Amino acid sequence: MLRRLLLQASTTRRLAGAHFTPPSSPPLLRYRPLSSSSSSTQIPETHLGDNPDQPSATISIDRSGLCNPPAHSHEPCSDSELVKHLKGIIKFRGGPISVAEYMEEVLTNPKAGFYMNRDVFGAGGDFITSPEVSQMFGEMVGVWAMSLWEQMGQPGKMNLVELGPGRGTLMADLLRGASKFKNFTESLHVHMVECSPALQKLQHQALKCVDEEGMADTAEKRTVSTLAKTPVSWHATFDQVPSGLPSIIIAHEFYDALPVHQFQRASRGWCEKMVDVAEDSKFRFVLSSQPTPATLYLAKRCKWAGMEEIAKLDHVEVCPASMELTQSIADRIASDGGGALVIDYGQNGVVSDSLQAIRKHKFVDILDNPGSADLSAYVDFASIRHSAEEASGEVSVHGPITQSQFLGSLGINFRVEALLQNCTEEQFESLRSGYWQLVGEGEAPFWEGPDEKVPIGMGTRYLVMAIVNKKHGVPVPF
User: Fold this and answer.
1) Which residues contact 387 (CB under 8 A, 6 or more apart)?
2) Which of 19, 149, 153, 179 is the most exposed place for a label (fewest CB within 10 A)?
């Protein structure tokens, strides 16, 4: 059945069961955009005025898979509140701010941050993620969580933590799929790490939560998901999640939104790329004239990589927030037991220049109308590994493997077969499209609809890594 479903084209494509081989070089795009046209552009790099001899450089942005040309949103108009805020910071500092600080403000500013006050997911939003593609994704993550729970000795109480849960779709599908396994669901306390009030409300709805009165000896209320009768709590940061219980931590498309510092090789050495205000009051990139605090993290990343790998690069991205979060996760797993699953687009090595902005499924200029587009960067999986291993000798790191290998080994082929047994024609089309997007590679061979909506497989674009307490052994399917 599955063979008939997916191999309707004259050319047979490899599927998840065959374990796709990753491309020799990582793609330069995240999967979130929906369109599929291709072009490239060059953004000129501006240098600080006190270095007239500084050689010019360019930043290349790959627009493959995206509509062209990018639509700039700015008409002649007054600055937005976020733009005024950013310019105020630069003016107060008396100089430019780092790309990381710019990124953090754009995404999580309490009043105008991209994620803070609206739903940015799905076809009607700015990008689509794997849980929005098919229920099978959350179900397979649930299979992984239950497998690790069994390896942990089936603890009676456990924290199930999701970082950056989006709409709550992944957790909802996980709990719904696991609801028949009472011993597992009764052990759980779900913790959603989410700083956006708007997304917290969507997650509350997705998990079908109800607020119950607390016990007689306490005035506190508790929130319970009716999907599996599991208590649910929300936290702004991971550090706020209570410790003391073994934890399974899920980070799907979370690391890519952590702020990155960008460095460019110049005649005087590595210089951090900064955001400044030009004479025409528009934002521009400049290079720092002096070493910055983030240079310490650059030195650490270069040490991990080795001179040969760094010598080939003119740009390097480092993410101190990723290093520090990974260390916190590793410390928690080492002390309390459990494991973490990281799923994201990225590469197993130094990331050179990947920061991108996406608005309504299209690439746009990173500095255009800040707060109206998603900013994200490739995840440096090698840095995650080094950070975890440096934090604790009690944890082991596994992977990365491709998303196709991960989902295929956990049984997504069998799951799609079961779902196809009783489905409508419309559901049939949705299932095969969703299956291809999750585990396929490139354009789907069976598509007969509009070219701009052809399903694009992300089976090899996304990588999966696990961090677990060594006493639990090797997690499936690594």
Assistant:
1) 322, 323, 324, 326, 327, 330
2) 153
Helical pair 320-336 and 295-305, crossing angle rounded to 10 deg: 70
Q: Is 348 exposed, middle or buried (0-12, 13-18, 19+ CB in 10 A)?
A: middle
Amino acid at 49: G
For 1-152+246-478, the fitting CATH number among 1.25.40.10, 1.10.40.50, 3.40.50.12710, 3.30.2130.10 is: 3.40.50.12710
> How many other C-beta atoms can be found within 10 angstroms of the C-beta atom of residue 221?
9
For helices 425-439 and 412-420, what crossing angle results, to 10°?
A: 170
Least confident among 195-199, 340-344, 409-413, 461-465: 195-199
**What is d(CA 316, CA 299) in angstroms, rounded to the nearest whole number?**
11
- Cα separation, 337 vs 124, whole angstroms: 40
Helix %, strand %, coil % of the chain (to 5): 35, 25, 40
Map residue 459 onto helix, strand or coil: coil
247-252 and 338-347 strand pairing = parallel
- Flag the least confident range among 38-47, 174-183, 193-202, 248-257: 38-47
Pairing status of strand 315-318 against strand 261-266: antiparallel
**Tokens encoding 152:** 């942990």
Q: What residue ranges do the domains of the chain occupy?
A: 1-152+246-478
| Burial degree of 455 (CB within 10 A; 0-12, 13-18, 19+) | buried
Cβ 17 vs Cβ 409: under 8 Å? no
Helices then strands, counting H and E runs in the chain, come out as: 15, 22
Pairing of strands 379-380, 338-347: parallel
The secondary structure of 386-398 as a DSSP string is HHHHHH-TTEEEE
Beta bridge partners of 233: 191
Query: Please, are residues 240 and 330 in contact by the beta-carbon 8 Å criterion?
Result: no
Count other Cβ atoms within 10 Å, centred on residue 373.
Answer: 26
70 dihedral zone (left: phi>0; alpha: psi -120 to 50; beta): beta
